[in-house]
What does this fold into?
Amino acid sequence: MINLPKIQMAIFLGFIALGAIFFSGQNGAFLSVILAVGTTFIADYCFIRLRKIQPFVLSAALVSGLIIGLLAYPLLPWYYLVSVCLLAMASKNFLKMNNRHVFNPAAFGLVVGGLIFSQNVSWWGVIFQSLKLNPLSIFLFILILVPGYISIFRMRRGRLIVSFLIIFTLTEILLRFNSADTPKVVFSTLLSPLVLFFSMVMLPEPMTSPNNRRLQIFFGAFVGILAAFFNFFPFFFLPDTLLVSLLVGNLVFYWLRQKYP
It folds into this structure.
């Protein structure tokens, strides 16, 4: 069972969560992560039984719970976190077409929950791990990169990740239209723990991203362009531009995933 990619992803996310809990200095972090993981696990189990499906290894619920625990601000009311987790697992179990998942569960819960409660996604457990010149910072930054091994080599989503990073960075540069800022934009994007975590953990989620290798390139590029435009042109309140872009990409590419499996 430990050889399953999602179980391995959950293990690596668990290490990232432990690093965030012990070194971020964020009050309530431990209880927040435990509440998120426990709620997604219980909710997924209940929804599966409601659908009259035989329970199985709930690795997707574990991964979603860890992601939500790392991204939702720990000091928010408990009912916000519980609502986000319930929305995530409801989307996983009931928002399907032709028995196929449409939206990344964690992203769906965080975005819809953010809209309901007018709350931004904080990414608290990720952003503090920016690269600095000290051993602990370097270790924590490398820890953020480890899930990339699962996404690239086990889930075979390398093209998707690379296309997103390239197109997102180029679009950010073009929109700023200032050559003096180009090196800063490149380094701040490619060394951003937030962007790296998103591209290596959330974007390549296997049930809601394309298996077709050519389609992966277009999917990553589409989400990258959309995210850069949402960053530059904030049309209205969005809980998080990256996560909203991912959900739009999930929806737009849903039918293409069926046509080009």
User: Anything to note?
Assistant: Residues 5-259 form one domain. The chain has 14 helices and two strands. The two ends are 26 Å apart (CA to CA). Residues 127 and 194 are 6 Å apart (CA to CA).
